[in-house]
Write a structure and sequence with these properties.
Strand content: 15-25%
Number of strands: 6
Distance between the termini: 40 Å
CATH class: Alpha Beta
InterPro entries: Knr4/Smi1-like_dom, Knr4/Smi1-like_sf
CATH superfamily: SMI1/KNR4-like
Number of domains: 1
Largest sheet: 6 strands, antiparallel
CATH architecture: 3-Layer(aba) Sandwich
Shape: globular
Radius of gyration: 16 Å
Strand order of the largest sheet: 1-2-3-4-5-6
Structural class: alpha+beta
Number of helices: 7
Protein name: Knr4/Smi1-like domain-containing protein
Length: 175
């Protein structure tokens, strides 16, 4: 796996979100910066709490940005505090409980293999990462009732969300 330049990817998304803030004249979405990086010690506590190590790409991201409120529209990307059971994790766990067994079966997933990593504050959007116990660890899946999209790893998910934010900019420019 090639190294991901998280500093560059984070700055790209900050610039896209800044452009979105400028064209969103009705202020439909909040513009928030990512949180300050998590420490190694904090991530070790997260991993002890979860009972397994974090996906390497997600872990590396957290060492650069400890989560990102309003990462995409009203979706908050979890940081260490959330992964320790606080904040958005409660909503993530609730939303995961609403994903029907038939939707999981259609996606070939087991609920116990899913770690919520992002959730909408007011919508059905839930993003989960498959844990090491799954057949495809590190995969990120977007649910909104049923599966919306699937990303092979965290960096591809991050890049896709950057593109979705760019689409929002284009939408506002065309309106």
């Amino acid at each position: 796996m090639s190294a991901v330049n998280w500093k560059q990817l984070i700055v790209q998304l900050v610039l896209v979100k800044q452009a979105l803030s400028e064209v969103d004249t009705k202020k439909l979405w909040y513009f928030r910066l990512p949180r300050i990086a998590a420490s190694e010690e904090t991530l070790r506590r997260v991993e002890a709490h979860l009972g397994e190590s974090l996906d390497p790409q997600y872990r590396e991201f957290l060492l650069h940005a400890d989560g990102w409120p309003t990462f995409y529209q009203v979706v908050d990307l979890f940081g260490s505090g959330d992964l320790l059971g606080g904040g958005a994790a409660l909503r993530g766990a609730e939303m995961l409980s609403y994903v029907e067994d038939v939707a999981l079966a259609a996606s070939g997933l087991r609920r116990e293999d899913l770690l919520p990593i992002a959730v909408s504050a007011s919508d059905l959007d839930l993003f989960v990462m498959l844990t090491k116990s799954s057949t495809i660890p590190g995969t990120v899946i977007w649910f909104a009732g049923s599966e919306v999209d699937r990303f092979p790893n965290f960096s591809e998910y991050f890049l896709a969300m950057t593109d979705y934010n760019r689409e929002e900019v284009n939408y506002f420019l065309q309106s």
